[in-house]
Amino acid sequence: MTTFTSSLPNELLEKLDEISKSFGVPKNKIIRLALDNYIRQLEKKMYEISYKKLAGDKDILNMAEEGIEDYFTQLIEQDEKK
């Protein structure tokens, strides 16, 4: 694991210290978990943005429609085999 040094506002550090003491959890663990959670939220937002951009792309829409037609054809063929 790599060590990282950063500066935070005094108010934030005081809140972090209070929470750390209240829950008996080391400050670095709280920061790590909070950062991990925040990064996951940003990644979800990036996916959302990329899907919205693709939604307006006619080529992507055509590929999706062709793909769903192929999927339905495969489902029908599987049902007929039963």
Distance between the termini: 55 Å
Proportion of β residues?
under 5%
Structural class: mainly alpha
What oligomeric state do these chains adopt? single chain
For the largest beta-sheet, the strand count, sense and barrel status come to: none
Sequence of secondary-structure elements: HHH
Q: Radius of gyration, rounded?
A: 24 Å
Rounded mean pLDDT is: 87
Number of separate helices: 3
Low-pLDDT segments:
none
Give the CA-based shape: elongated
How many domains would you count in the coordinates? 1
Number of strands: 0
**Fraction of residues in helix:** over 70%
Describe the structure.
This protein has 82 residues and is mainly alpha-helical. Helix content is 82%, strand content 0%. 0% of the residues are buried. The protein has one domain. The longest helix is centred in the middle third of the chain and has 29 residues. The N and C termini lie far apart (55 Å).
